[in-house]
Amino acid sequence: MAEFWEEAFKDKQEMWGLEPAKSAIVTNDFFIANNVKNVLIPGVGYGRNANVFIQSGMTVTGIEISETAIGIAKKHFGNDLEIYHGSVTEMPFDTKLYDGIFCYALIHLLDKTERIKLITDCYNQLTENGYMIFTTITKDAKTYGQGTYISKDRFEMFGGVKMFFYDRETIAEEFGKAGLFEFSEIKENYPFYIIKCKKGV
After folding, report:
1. N or C: which end of the chain has fewer CB within 10 A?
2. Spatial distance between the Cα atoms of 42 and 47, rounded to a whole number of angstroms
3. pLDDT the model gives residue 15
4. pLDDT in tens, 83-116
5. Is the distance from CB of 41 to CB of 23 less than 8 angstroms?
6. In whole angstroms, what is the distance from residue 125 CA to residue 186 CA?
7. Strand pairing of 98-104 and 180-187?
């Protein structure tokens, strides 16, 4: 997967623009309301979703597999955004605890073992009463069922991207033991769920 994203960023650079995703804006408002100060973003990319948190005065740390994306982020944010180079499957990269974690459109690119590990690793890096918010694609996406079948609700498409499509049952199954307290639908470029968990719930 590392090679795929490296090539994608080299070819298209800031391929999603510089405006934050709608769910990043919603999460930022939620974090402000809940006094979150220290945010971890697994899969931070070139930082378009980090900026909204930085602008709100939060300290942001990212994890990113693409060196090209990290280079672009450094160009935009300099020392305002610390980024660990590596895969989220290799978490944790530090021993810090964060009171907020935001993971955008990443978890559905992993297999089940990797998804459970990511959820667990993120939960373990939360402070007590900290929040983690994930966004993920739903079965309502037009791409659901397309491409090559891998396993239940998981397909390979777009020249090698393996994608898992969530529904309410799999959200409850995978996030239920990680402080899940709310999830809802949110429209991005695809229909997504925004999933909220709290440490200690």
Report:
1. C
2. 11
3. 52
4. 999 999 999 999 999 999 999 999 999 999 999 9
5. no
6. 26
7. unpaired
Q: Give dist(CA 34, CA 36) in Å, integer.
A: 6
pLDDT exceeds 90 at position 18: no
> How far apart (Å, rounded) are the C-alpha atoms in residues 123 and 68?
28
Residues 75-88, mean pLDDT to the nearest whole number:
92
Helices (H) and strands (E) in the chain, counts: 6, 10
All structural domains of the chain: 1-199 (3.40.50.150)
Q: Which of 126, 166, 116 is nearest to 31 (CA)?
A: 126
Residue located via tokens 């739903």: 138
Backbone torsions φ then ψ of 93, nearest 5 degrees: -100, -10
Segment 127-156 shows an average pLDDT of: 96
- The Cα–Cα gap between 152 and 159 comes to 20
pTM exceeds cut of 0.85: yes
Q: What is the pLDDT of residue 32?
A: 98
Q: Which two tokens stand for residue 41?
A: 């973003």
- The strand order across the sheet containing 38-42 reads 81-85, 59-64, 38-42, 98-104, 126-137, 191-198, 180-187
